[in-house]
Amino acid sequence: MLSLYLVLGAPLAAIAVNAQSSDKVNWQNTTGTSSTAFPTAVGNLGPYTYGAPPFLAQEDPVNSTKMNTRAIEMRYLPKDGKKDNATSEDIFRNIGTQGPYFPANDLFPETNAYQNVPEHCEIEQVHIVHRHGSRYPGSSGPSEFGQKVVNMTKAKKLKTKGDLAFLNHWNNSMGTELLVHQGAQENFDSGVRAYYQYAKLLENVKEKPVFRTTSQSRMLDTARYWLLGFFGWDAPNKVNLEVIPETSSGQNNTLFPSACKNGYTLGMQVAKGVTKQWQEKYMPPILKRLQKDINGYNLTTDDLENMFQLCGLETVSHGYSHFCSLFTKKEWESFEYDIDLQFASGLGFMSPTGKAQGIGWVTEFLDRLTNKTFSGPVTTQNSTLDKNSTYFPLKQPIYADFTHDSVITSILAALNFTQLNDKLDPTEPNPHRRYRTSRVTPFGARLVFEVMSCKDSGKSAKYIRSKINEAVVPLDEGQGCEKRKDGLCKLDGFVKNLKRAYNASHFDVVCFGKNGTDFTVTGPVQNGSLNSSQIHSKKH
After folding, report:
1. What distance in Å separates the CA atoms of residue 346 and residue 284, rounded to the nearest whole number?
2. For residue range 296-334, what is the model confidence (pLDDT) as tens digits?
3. What is the pTM of this model?
4. For the chain, what are the domain ranges?
5. What is the CATH number of domain 1-506?
6. pLDDT for 414-437, tens place per residue?
7. Among candidates 407, 401, 483, 452, which has minimal Cα distance to 127?
8. Rounded Cα gap, residues 528 and 421, in angstroms
9. CA–CA distance, 7 with 233 (Å, rounded to integer)
C-alpha cells in the first residue's frame, strides 16, 4: 500500500485523514499496451484513505524506558498474562494474518539444522513469492466497527468501563488499505536480506530482471520498498517492475486470480460455515465478560473478531493498541485458530477452489523452471504477457512476484504442500498442527524456492528446496521428492509432480461450473479441490 520520493514514486506518508483515492482505470497505460514498456501508473490502485500520524512518544501506554528494536509497541501482555506466564509473543505470534513479520523458526523444527546450503551445492536460481507488508485495515470489518464505536460515543449512546474504558476516549484514526511505515520497513528489510543472500546471482547479468506486482497501492509500494532494499536508490536502473492491474474483471492476473469466477464466493461460503462452528464455541464466554463493561450496545461475534484484528492493525498503524490486552493467552490461541480455519477452508486445502486459485502461478513457475514459453493450459495467466519474453523472460537467476496472503495460501495448495494440510476440526484445535497463518502468511510473508546444482558421488545433479519465512520445508513424496533430512529435492522429480498440478485443480469445473449441476460442494474438502465423485460435468 505506498512508496518513496523522486526515485520510486510518491511520498510515503500523507496525513490527511479523509484523503481518498480516485483510482481511475488507465487502460491505455497498462503493461503490454502502453508506449512505455513498464508503466507503473496503470490505475486500479484500489480504494484507500490516509490515516492520522502516530504520536507514540506522547501516547505510549507502556511507558517506554528502553530501546526497542521495533518502532512499534509490542510489549503488551495478554489479559491475566502474569498468571498464565504469558509474554507479548502470545499475542503477536498468535494474531493470524494481521501481525508483523516474524521468521517461522518453529514451523519445521526437523529442518532447523539444515538452514545452510550443503557445501557440495551451489545456488543457481531463486524464485520468491512475497506478501505485502503491514497495512491499514480494509474499508469493512475493523474499520466499520471502529467508526460505529466513535459515532456512538460522540452521540453519548455508549458508556464503557473496566477493560473497555479506553473506548470512551478512543478515536478511530486509521486509514484504509494503504501500506504503513511498519510495512515499508518489513519490505525494505526483506529486500536487504535477499540482497545479502542472493545478489551474487545477478553479478554478470546484462539484461534487467523483470519482477512483478499487482496495481493495488499497497502491492505496488511493497515491491518498491523491497527493490529499494535489494538494489538501492537506483533500483529503476537495475530492474524492470511489471505492474499488472488488479481488478475483479479485466486482465487475467495470477497474482490476483479473479479470473476464477467461483473462487472467492464458493470458498468463502465454505469458510463461513466452518468458522461459525468454532466461533460459537470459543466466543460466547468472551462476549459475556466484555459485555459487562459496555452499556448501550450489545456486542456481536463480528464485533469481537474485529476487536481481535484491531490489536494487530492498530499496532502497525499507530504503534500500539489497547485492544491487545483485552484477551487472555488462551483466547488469542482460539482467535488464531479462527483465522486458520478461515484461510484453510476459504482458500487452501479445505477449499474446493484452493488449488484452482493458485494453479495459474504454479503453471508459470513450471514454465520458468523448464525454460519453456507459455503454451497453456490457460487458467488465470495473462497469456498475452506470458507469451512475450519482455514481460515473462526465461532463465532469470532471480524471480520475485508480490501478491496477497490469500494467493500464497492457494499456491501452497496447488503445489500440493501437504506438510501444511492439517485436518482442522471446526470444534477442537489441534495444538500440534503445522498450519498456522501466523507462521505461514503474516504481513511480509515470503515463499522462496532455491534451485541449485549439487555434486553427488562425483556427479552433478539439479536440486530444489523451499523456504517459508526462512523455515526450510521438508519436501517429500507429496511434491515428487525422496524424503531427506535437509529438505532438498531432485528437480526432475519436483517438475514431474508439478505437471500433474493442473489436472488436480479441476480449474474449469470449479471456477466456471454451477454448484449442484456441474459439481456438488456442501462443505470443506480435504485436498484443495473436488474428488471425482463430486464432479458431474466435463463440459467446462
Report:
1. 24
2. 899 999 999 999 999 999 999 999 999 999 999 999 999
3. 0.93
4. 1-506, 507-534
5. 3.40.50.1240
6. 999 999 999 999 999 999 999 999
7. 401
8. 9
9. 7
